[in-house]
Amino acid sequence: MSATALDEVAHGLQAFREGLVAHGLVLPTSVRGVWGRGTAMEDIIQRFDALVLRETAGDGAQPLAFPPVLPRTLIEQLGYLDNFPQLAGSVHSFMGNDAQGRELARLADSGGDWEALLAPTDVMLTPAACYPVYPSFSGLLPQGGRLITVLGWVFRHEPSDEPTRLQSFRMREFIRMGSPDTVVAWRDGWLQRGLDLLRRLGLPARSDVAADPFFGRSGRMMAAQQVEQRLKFEILVPVISEAQPTAVCSFNWHQDHFSGKFGIRGAGGATAHTACLGFGLERVALALIRTHGFEPAAWPDDVRALLWP
Amino acid sequence: MSATALDEVAHGLQAFREGLVAHGLVLPTSVRGVWGRGTAMEDIIQRFDALVLRETAGDGAQPLAFPPVLPRTLIEQLGYLDNFPQLAGSVHSFMGNDAQGRELARLADSGGDWEALLAPTDVMLTPAACYPVYPSFSGLLPQGGRLITVLGWVFRHEPSDEPTRLQSFRMREFIRMGSPDTVVAWRDGWLQRGLDLLRRLGLPARSDVAADPFFGRSGRMMAAQQVEQRLKFEILVPVISEAQPTAVCSFNWHQDHFSGKFGIRGAGGATAHTACLGFGLERVALALIRTHGFEPAAWPDDVRALLWP
User: Fold this and answer.
1) Which of A206, A292, B142, B295 could form a disulfide with A299 if both were Cys (CB 3.0 to 4.6 A apart)?
2) Do B92 and A115 touch (CB under 8 A)?
3) In chain B, whose CA is at the least distance from the CA of A170?
4) Residue A1: its pLDDT value, please?
5) Splitting chain A (309 residues) into consecutive groups of 10 residues, what average pLDDT does each group show?
6) What angle do CA A12, A18, A22 make, to 5 degrees?
């Protein structure tokens, strides 16, 4: 981008952020990428999620829920620390005695390094809403496979002032497990379905092949392979910049990455494939606000009719 | 308790846990106090929360939402590390370069201490759903004060096999800010209202004065003071044991603890008081299951009519 184009983005970004706060949609905290959702923002998020569930009611997805933390061993087992060490959140706690507790409080009260007295717990923050699903389905799948849906909070350590880049946000995910053909056909069908749904909401959505933010030099090769094999797609909508639209929905075909590790097998006994898609709920809300304005009451009638039926 | 009574509790606990898993209500993980919510369990939780919102629709509570992490400085500022260091969850991440990233992956893959390469981030896990609310309302309250409601995931580091003692769970909270009289009258009214609501669901609920699990020897004095001043109440329902019922709802009158720190003042300018109440959603669901059985379809008609209207 030229310096002028960058200036325009920065200016638009600042105006958008200020508008979100001024309209009570975002309640800022002292930490970048961590903010409260105001009443209207949370309503948009809930309404969009309800719309997705209504539109997919006939699919027969089985709803489950998992907390925002998961076993540390699961993160280790999935190779997340090879691929995305920069994004992971590890939970540490104090497990000491009375005297050590007083020392910790003294350090905390005096601005000292009280965290040195902590130790890693058995849990980490959940980086993707579907991760805890896979180990729950070790073994044989029923005929036709499985379709699961979860709504979960996920964590990514990437502090930013960009309102769409949150450290903690919600994903509505659908997870398909079955034969390779079944899973790919499901993913392909959803690409169009996701586009249609977002376009009916008036969003200028388009899809593209994508790559995960793999870490470091070797990560660049991983990302290139992922693009070449067309394993990840995203649906993009301009929020901060027309030139660099924001991913509001992503589709991942894991092949046998998860099913191999957890022994998820098709009815015939062969290792199954898995794929998932996830709507980033805060990002969809921000895309709607960017497109239709800060006042949901003034959004186009057809958009309102879909969200507030 | 006598040894026989303890045996009975242990036996009942095991049978209850096994029943929850056998009925698909609980999806266990490798970590104690961290489990997935099966379809029927999640439905009970959602239905109870919807019931609470329906019953309180006339109160005019303003809904907000906050992520499961909050600023580290907020935990420090609130004195949480003086009182509950043993429960806090601190989020640590990797912020190193490419070479350090490879070292971290090597350590993780070989079972080494990869956590030594992490550093504390700006966030911690939210220990109570109301904590992020207070700093958002620094300044003058409107006439009559404020009533806020939030649904949030909270973390307590207390690994346990006891199904009601979770490391990560949801609280539906209501937060009242206003003059001391207003706040105490609201808290007192809710004590009866909460009991009534839970009893209409067939739960043998009773209320009692309570204390928070303050840490260490000096914590015992804090707890005694809290009881003496009647600052905390709980609504209790037998889940694991008749003799030691489980708190499913708690009421805290903070006096000026939060409002003083964040400069929350009444319309007249004096420091306001705050109080909150929170339903532990997973605990209410477990109390319903313990009372009415593992199959919600077979629960009493009047209970079903309230939850599935």
Assistant:
1) A292
2) yes
3) B67
4) 60
5) 72 92 97 98 98 98 98 96 96 97 95 96 98 96 96 97 96 98 96 97 97 92 93 96 95 97 93 98 98 98 98
6) 140
Q: For residue A249, count CB atoms less than 10 angstroms from its CB and return exposed for 0-12, middle for 13-18, buried for 19 or more.
A: buried
| Domain span at A251 | 15-89+127-307
Choose from A42, A83, A123 for mutation: most chain B CBs within 10 A.
A123
Q: Do residue A90 and residue B85 have CB atoms under 8 angstroms apart?
A: no
Q: Which of B80, B105, B124 is the last residue of a domain?
A: B124
| A39 interaction partners in chain B (CB closer than 8 Å) | 62-64
CB B175 within 8 Å of CB B150: yes
Minimum CA–CA partner of A137 in chain B: B27
Q: Nearest C-alpha of chain A: how many angstroms from B302?
A: 26
Do residues B67 and B155 lie in contact, with contact meaning Cβ atoms separated by under 8 Å? no
Both A160 and A57 in a single domain? Answer: yes
Query: Is the domain of A223 the same as that of A260?
Result: yes
Q: Are residue B104 and residue B26 in the same domain, yes or no?
A: no
Q: Is B160 left (phi over 0), alpha (psi -120 to 50) or beta?
A: beta
Contacts of B30 in chain A (CB under 8 A): 71, 73-74, 122
Do A65 and B73 lie within an 8 Å CB cutoff? Answer: no
